[in-house]
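Dissemination and training. As part of the outreach component of the grant, students in the summer workshop were shown how a complex can be specified as a set of sequence lines and then modelled as a single object. The example used during the hands-on session is reproduced here so that future cohorts can follow it. Participants entered these lines:
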Amino acid sequence: MTSRPLDDNKVIQIGLVVENIDEAVQAWSLLLGVTPPSIIITETVDVAHTQYHDSPTPAQARLAFFDLGQVALELIQPVGSPSTWNDQLTAHGPSLHHLAFEIKGMEKHIRELAKHGLRLIQRGEYTGGRYAYVDGQKQFGTVIELLEND
Amino acid sequence: MTSRPLDDNKVIQIGLVVENIDEAVQAWSLLLGVTPPSIIITETVDVAHTQYHDSPTPAQARLAFFDLGQVALELIQPVGSPSTWNDQLTAHGPSLHHLAFEIKGMEKHIRELAKHGLRLIQRGEYTGGRYAYVDGQKQFGTVIELLEND
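and obtained this result:
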């Protein structure tokens, strides 16, 4: 690996999969003492170009974000399948899906991490950027997300 | 709940349970491009007064911490049982155990959270402070840790 495969080691997201995001948003809002954030849905595959194990997937997710300082807590309710979000929820119930780090140069980072056994499992786009999930469950106890904003 | 049950919503720890902390420290050190941190072990029950479901437990844990900015990544290898660390590893393998928040007034916070169904599952002490884990798996997808430093 390069000396800093993640560019910057400041984790910027903690992504949890949940069964029911409406209930989870309520519960977290009470715990954090904040106004419930909006729930959004990821773009459809024609816009997001979502790929799961190198094939297009119609899976989407409903998302909500809470401000925990440097880190955003991201709640994720899978919608459809196949997706790594759905895999995690099916296997483990409500639980951590990923820790996210912001990088510059997505293809370079994906190649670099693949050399060390961190396999790309899903990728996609959103307005202003793109993401990639690499499989770190065994070595790291979590999926690692690379986020690149333009 | 009070308006801010966690006092401050800045998450300060992401705690992951691992099978083998020596291997996990090596893997994370490579991924983050940093020198491997020391591995420590929690105090024995006579010093830490570790309680699991209101009874003393001899369980300990080997720990290592990585600096991710505002947040520390805590790797946890359970040593002995019963403990909430061991429960998580047994049920789900390497995975998120807790998100930690720093609070002032441990007993008040434990009582307040208990009123809302967040049950105390384990507590203990360390040099300069104390911790409590409350069960948030179902509602929150994670155990919530309260940390109080003197």
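Helices of chain A lie at 21-32, 45-48, 84-92, 106-115, 137-140. Students were then asked to discuss how this feature might be tested experimentally.
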